[in-house]
Amino acid sequence: MGATAIRSSAAFPGLQLTGVITSSPDKSGKDAATFAGLDQPTGVTATTDVDAALADCDAVAYMASGDIRPDDAVNDIERCLRAGAHVVTPSLYSLYDPRSAPPEWVDRLTRAAEAGGSTLLVSGVDPGWGNDALAVIAAGLCTRIQSIHCQEIFDYSTYNQPYAVKVSCGFGGPMGEVPMMLLPSVPTMVWGGNVRLIGRGLGMEIDEITEEVERRPLEDSVDTVMGRFEKGTQGAFWLKVIGKVNGRERVVVDHITRIHESCAPDWPYPDQGVGDHRVIVHGDPELTITSRADLPGGTRADGGNTTAANRLLGALDWLLTQKPGIYDGLDVPLQRCRPPEVEAQRWAD
Asked: In what order do the strands lie in the sheet with 287-291?
């Protein structure tokens, strides 16, 4: 996500890349283009001097992980807000819906934003636009809605992120061990906020969230970009985070995820390629919206990451006009009023 944000900020109309902060001394002094795979130098070099970088910017795209270091991420974001920088980030899942976040985080970050005159937006793709704004838009096209499903259907065989795939998701691990992502309450921590966000966007108060998980082993060993995954280890899982109103399922986030296309052949597959995000509205009409993002030379995951970064960076012009505080994916308007000369820069030749 750091590399993606560098690429996007260097190209996004109305934005200028002024600094890149790194925690690795061996990366300090290198041009930002090195990390983002850009053909031309940006003239901006990475630094470990946080104060110097914050002194020369109006906003921060915070792309450091918050999965296994949430307290550190909150501290970093608080520091940026107090310094007067508007912050956009995908790093803290519970803040995707601030009403679902730990109250002490919300209090700290709200006070920091007020002290610095700054704003905070936390969002991504899933959780993020794939199961907040897109779902609410889809529901607006239907009547007499029974339920809404937001699905991510992905084959991780080309996604070269060993920690996320093997440790967080548990692919290649023993079926007798439950991986981090599938431990009870963790799915709700990640996606529960978006379930509530959809409910709020549609005038419903989600009063109960439950989880369902089914896992499948590999029936044969398979080879991927991360190496071999052995027969009998975890090869697929179907995760559901279910939001209920008065006992009825209303909003469901599904993840149907494989390490190889051969596993769980009776489960849904993406329409094409290795991955889709879908919103399915069971209503009148029965509506399915399928979205995918392809990045030339990259994987579908790279494309999805780019949409997440672009949504965050694209919200900055709106955030700069708002009162200090924390905002979510339903607060940001779909159409923002950029100056015509800035908006025109988005159109490629």
From this structure: 208-217, 234-245, 248-258, 143-155, 275-284, 287-291
Give per-residue burial for 272-284: e unless 16+ CB within 10 Å, then b: eebbbbbbbbbbe
Per-residue pLDDT of 254-296, as tens digits, reads: 999 999 999 999 999 998 778 889 999 999 999 999 998 888 8
Residue 28 and residue 51: Cα distance in Å, rounded? 15
Element (H, E) at 91: none
Mapped onto helix, strand or coil, the DSSP state of residue 264 is coil
Cα separation of 61 and 87, whole Å? 6
Give backbone dihedrals phi and psi of 11, rounded to 5 degrees, phi first: -110, -20
Bridge partners, 222 (sequence order):
229
pLDDT more than 90, % of the chain: 81
Mean pLDDT of the chain: 92
Torsion of CA 13, 19, 25, 30, to 10 degrees: 60
Q: What is the pLDDT of residues 16-52, one digit of tens each?
A: 999 999 999 999 999 999 999 898 999 999 999 999 9
CA-to-CA distance for 326 and 349, rounded, in angstroms? 37
CB within 8 A of 238, min separation 6: which ones?
213, 214, 254, 255, 256, 257, 264, 267
- CA distances to 106, 320, 349 from 102, rounded to whole Å, are 7, 25, 46
Contacts of 283 (CB under 8 A, 6+ apart): 139, 142, 143, 144, 145, 146
Q: What is the pTM of this model?
A: 0.89
